[in-house]
Amino acid sequence: MEYFVIGDEDTVLGFSLVGVSGIVAATADEAKGAWDKALEDKAHGVIIITEDVADLIRDTVDRYLFSESFPLVVEIPARSGKRGPDLRELVNQAIGVSI
Fold first, then answer.
1. Hey, what CATH topology would domain 2-95 get?
2. What would the mean pLDDT of 34-62 be, rounded to a whole number?
3. Of 29, 42, 59, 91, which one is least surrounded by beta carbons within 10 A?
């Protein structure tokens, strides 16, 4: 099972540093193309997509989320987004240690 990430350049680069392949998407067409590419490979067990990119193709993502069970789709906050706690806060909550 492999991970695949769709998002902005910084997110995709960051995940590539730990061996996760992905595609940068900044427009709805790029996001749709990346989504289709991610679903083509059955080895992709988890698709990670940033919220801002998911919003570009929200109907597609939601339709898939509510009708399929595999692969797992995980939306993460965009680097520039301020919707929720930042990554440091999430790690602190998860492990109980302040970094």
1. Rossmann fold (3.40.50)
2. 93
3. 59
